[in-house]
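Posting for a labmate who doesn't have an account.
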Amino acid sequence: MITQSTPYQYGNNELSKMFLCTFLGSSSQTADSDPTESFTLTHLTPSCEVPLIILKNKIQRETDPERREALQRDYHKKIQTRAKIERTMQDIAKLASPEVGTMPLKDRNPLTGLHNMKDVAEHFRLTFSEWCEEQDDGFVLSCMHVFATLLESGVEVARIKEAVSYVNSSEH
């Protein structure tokens, strides 16, 4: 009779203590001799930049002049939209928190007030719906840290929403 059995304890429990390299056929000494410190990152691309890089590569590979010109127009439109989004985020940050200025555009703080962030982000999405419907929504999402920093620095949700609405009305 088994007296010390607990549910889901089947098989050889010593396997959980073994290194993965043992199963792959190499020794742990080989794994230890190749430290992860020798790994160097060669190229990191933010996810919001990927669509632009793909479009740039399409332009370079395109052989049809008309199609290349259309792709270049699309590329320049995306660049202009990004610049407009960055200017808008700067304006919102300045209006919402003049004493902080453009600092929220550079710093990325961890977000603790998720409900407030959702409220501000939803207001931004509804106010600037034309950007959120375009393909460049990844870039818009990458700018949300501005709102997070404003919220973390103590700016009220209503003040940020007022700044978003004001900047939107002044652009149209």
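Reply:
Got it, the structure tokens are right above this. The radius of gyration is 25 Å.
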